[in-house]
Specification:
Chains A, B: One of its GO terms (molecular function) is DNA-binding transcription factor activity. The structure is a homodimer of 188-residue chains. Chain A is built from ten helices and no strands. By secondary structure, the first copy, chain A, is mostly helical. The first copy, chain A, folds into two domains: 56 residues, Homeodomain-like (Arc Repressor Mutant, subunit A); 116 residues, Tetracycline Repressor, domain 2 (Orthogonal Bundle). In chain A, helix 2 packs across helix 7 and helix 6 crosses helix 7. At the A-B interface, helix 7, helix 8 and helix 9 of A face helix 7, helix 8 and helix 9 of B.
Amino acid sequence: MNERQRARRPGGRSARVGAEVHQAVTDLISERGYGNFTVGEVAARAGVADSSIYRRWGSLETLLTDVALTRLNAQSPMPDTGSLAGDLRTYAAQVAREITGPDGLAVVRLAVALSSNGQQGLQAGADLRAERTRQLQSMLDRARDRGEHAPDAFDVLDHILAPMYIRVLFGMVPLTPDYIDGLVDRML
Amino acid sequence: MNERQRARRPGGRSARVGAEVHQAVTDLISERGYGNFTVGEVAARAGVADSSIYRRWGSLETLLTDVALTRLNAQSPMPDTGSLAGDLRTYAAQVAREITGPDGLAVVRLAVALSSNGQQGLQAGADLRAERTRQLQSMLDRARDRGEHAPDAFDVLDHILAPMYIRVLFGMVPLTPDYIDGLVDRML
């Protein structure tokens, strides 16, 4: 195993540092809001050197994008239940669980803030949505392949994700199972 | 005319100061984001004394709430076109125009940020929504009085306002007339 492989071994030091830095960012967003902390403060919170962060991520903006992408993507693999209604209900419930969880508001605010932060942020936000849309699209394509009538990925954004995001952003929680299933049933 | 009446005369000094302070807040939110400026900076931008702001609004939080309420409420009186479809299409187009206008993103971010800012912010956000919901409800009640089948005010939030807010927050603009009418038609 060479140096590079060791550094990237899952569960190794690199993964640990990554997780600690990500958690520090999420905590700082929760406590202070987006844009109110520096790379130095993230480093101090995570117990690493500033230079480690700059070496790995290059800038605070890139780090924030990485956190948003990781949190919004990795935590919810797309469901494959055999029916579109089942997939969408499971997916909507996963998203609801994420965005109402302890770091949920921070992650939604981060996703929103990215797009409001100049050209680099707009690009980061677009990349984040492109990845989610790709995953969502394969779920909808599977339904179409089974002969089901599937909506557009934008319909899912407008009528399932947007209402949940806005209710979390406005503090109108919890999102009950009845409410979430209602959004899906209404869209279908 | 006594001193009090003079101070409140529309177009008088008080109204001018109010408008300048509101514009200063909107500009600072656009430039720096919510939470990244002080009462002193608002005062300097508006060309008034800090003490004038504290005397009139008491705190930065109250001032921000006042700006959000004024911008989101006063600028769009509820339409009364004689049909629910006409009212909702006009209303949705008004909201779209506001939130995609020069200060639109700042106002949406302010409405969102209010609710993420502790108990006082949650209350301010709830007050803001209560006022909008009351106006919306009278529009829906008029439709019901005419014998039309009207949705719930929360349906309007979830399926007309939330998609537009999220698209503005994500930088997915413009909101075309076809898109806006489509949201209304789909909901009805």
